[in-house]
Amino acid sequence: MTHGSRLRVPALTRVEGEGGLEIVVDDGQVTEARLDIYEPPRFFEALLRGRQYTEPPDITARICGICPVAYQMSACAAIEDACGVTVPADIAALRRLLYCGEWMESHALHVYLLHAPDFLGYESGIHLARDHPDAVARGLRLKKAGNHLMEVVGGRSVHPVNVRIGGFYRAPSVSALRALLPELEQARQDAAETVAWVATFTFPDFSRDYEFVSLRHPDEYPITAGRVVSTGGLDIPPAGYDRHFTEFQVPHSTALHSVLDGKTYLTGPLARYSLNSGRLPAEVAAVARAAGLGPTCANPFRSIVVRAVELLYACDEALRLIRGYQPPDPPAVDVLPRAATGYGCTEAPRGLLYHRYAITADGTVTDAKIVPPTSQNQRAIEADLRAFAAARIGLPPERLTEECERAVRSYDPCISCAAHFLDLRVVGS
Amino acid sequence: MFDSERKRPARQPKPTLAVWKFASCDGCQLTLLNCEDELLAIAGSVTIASFGEASSEVIEGPYDLSLVEGSITTPADAERIRRVREASRFLVTIGACATSGGIQALRNFGGDLAPVVYARPEYIDTLRTSTAIADHVPVDFELRGCPIDRRQLLEVIGAFLRGRKPNVRAHSVCMDCKRAGRTCVLVAHGTPCLGPMTQAGCGALCPGVGRGCFGCFGPAPGWTFLPFGPANPARTEVKSR
Fold this sequence. Notes:
Shape of chain B: globular
Largest interface: A-B, 66 and 57 residues
CATH class of the largest domain in chain B: Alpha Beta
Strand order of the largest sheet of chain B: 2-1-3-4-6
Oligomer: heterodimer
Shape of chain A: globular
Number of domains of chain A: 1
CATH architecture of chain A: Orthogonal Bundle
Number of helices of chain B: 8
Strand order of the largest sheet of chain A: 1-2-3
CATH class of chain A: Mainly Alpha
Strand content of chain A: 15-25%
CATH architecture of the largest domain in chain B: 3-Layer(aba) Sandwich
Largest sheet of chain B: 5 strands, parallel
Structural class of chain B: alpha/beta
Largest sheet of chain A: 3 strands, antiparallel
Order of helices and strands of chain B: EHHEEHEHEEHHHH
Radius of gyration of chain A: 21 Å
Distance between the termini of chain B: 11 Å
Strand content of chain B: 5-15%
Number of strands of chain A: 14
């Protein structure tokens, strides 16, 4: 690399959404690494103003086709918080079951179709299938099982229709859920094999000193609920989010960047695992250990192993929840509006997803704030890229560009999610 | 539709498929990846020439079939869709964003958005409206839905491969709901339901869980509506195919 060179990947592939990356090298030093997000903004936070408090689950689901349940669940949590309602345990368990389906579908997609091809030298999961048909078949089975679970609980896998504030429109029957058990048993086995498979990949030696942020729950590996904690000692309820996390705009991205008390941080599978590996059931923890994972993991390339472990956990948890299932009756509790602001955080497959809504006594949304995981991770991704590229500056530019694109992919950025949250401010009238 | 009049470029042994994304959530192109049982067969019947979400391999156009997801919301995308059209023998729009402007077309109702600005609006280049692909270029077939239905997508790809018209019927959700023997949520519970005027395709999912249809698949043919915001004054009457 010579004086004043630029490496560019104008359009990242095998990521969700439209983004590129640019690395500037000056005098043998990496002076800049940018994740360019040019996905057109869709202004969801502005569109939510003036809508009824019952609408955000269906509207915000449309932010992301890969993790719609995450949006529905964070929206429900925030609005129910505003209205002073806590749903009963059986409704909360059914939500968790639906969310397990989304983790399975999303993680299987990333592990097999988006990420694994990098480690094995293929352009896509479809190319991978030519030489590794059994592995790809296993991945597609896992993905289908997750989608199927979402269809049975949510009505359909992309933008489920059965979720409402207070619970569900209709509780699935015991027999409909029990009919899923054989497929989920198979999925559990497939997931365990996935962990063993990805553990054989070769990972660059690239551990980082992250401040990890995720939810933490007293008993469970976090999905639907918990306090927001960090490895730096943060421990707050979702309502405290805005006092510690700040978003700001940068010129090269239609997604806002975010900092925790002024510092760069990382959310997502690595953070969740590192802060909560002690909450995994013994069998899942044993599989993780056999795959070479310690209690924490700070190498972004190894996130594929952590995702596979979470895939196994989601199968395990879905099986447990179905075996203990009794249909909640009624399937939803009444949630009456009141003038208040509510806060909700859940763990989307890609990390912490924060929603905040202000509503009036007649149930009109007057303000909405949504902070998706990819937007929170942009700074960490760029900092990592700088360090990653700096250590490989001697590589031919083409090779270095390729390696950097692989590095970005390991964070599973969801650019469609991230780009829709430009903060609109009204000035004047 | 999908007839052989439009000659294929001969250089690829198999027809080429390209998938394009504009302003959208990725859910409709994900529906292609959600065809878990058929994905590898599809990949065997066509050359996936450009599908950024799924593959790093990009083969230059022209393309036999382009699937287009998303709406037009930026000046750059208004240009890009013209290039996609020029490079495509057949262009099929997939989903509500591409066929109607999508949920982000709610901004079209906002009147003059000039007073509403970003913290740093100079970084952003966006149009005031979100519009359908057909408002910009000719479209060969529109597949409705938010998201599209997997079975309908497979039907369109199958029809393309066989060179025939896709068998995607345009009756209302109400008819599918009756056919499935469901209790009418409107008659029995007084729940407002858009089923009578919404195009079928989802399998009448919402009445199936006891809620009213909220119109993911857009209006069924034969319905005339008031202008849908300032963006589409010409598209007030729903075209039937």
